[in-house]
Write a structure and sequence with these properties.
Layout: H1 3-14, E1 18-23, E2 28-33, E3 38-46, E4 49-58, H2 66-74, E5 81-84, E6 90-98, H3 104-129
Antiparallel strand pairs: 1-2, 2-3, 3-4, 4-6, 5-6
């Protein structure tokens, strides 16, 4: 287990995020903050970066203007972006941060950006998910 993984776990505890699961051999932590809309947020130490990913929803069978709207939503995000998984079947929030100089404030800002993005776009994302 690397020093980065240990540091990330300490940060998550300081942020009072519920650690739902750890996969130490892969340096992955899965956290929840249900009060802020975060469930099964994957935090993966992939040196030299930290990958933060939250599944948002499956891509609807008829996506309409979903992809255009996601790009427009991305314009307002402070950290991270709405992206598609490698198969193009799932919308994900994803952020990557440099592990070497990562501090608590930067990790907190990334996670808060996700919460804000979900709050600001919740109704629209829910409408797309029902299509």
């Amino acid at each position: 287990m690397s020093n980065h993984f240990t540091k990330i776990k300490q940060y998550l505890q300081e942020l009072e995020l519920q650690i739902a699961r750890e996969i130490p051999e892969d340096e992955i932590v899965i956290v929840n903050d249900e009060a802020n809309g975060i469930t099964n947020l994957v935090i993966d130490c992939e040196y030299p970066i930290l990958v933060v990913e939250q599944i948002i929803m499956p891509v609807p069978k008829v996506p309409g203007d979903l992809f255009k709207r996601l790009l427009q939503m991305n314009r307002t995000l402070v950290h991270g972006a709405f992206v598609l998984d490698s198969e193009g079947k799932t919308v994900i929030f994803r952020d990557t941060l440099q592990l070497e100089n990562l501090d608590l404030n930067e990790l907190e800002a990334s996670i808060k950006s996700l919460s804000i993005a979900l709050f600001e776009n919740m109704d629209e994302l829910l409408a797309y998910s029902k299509k």
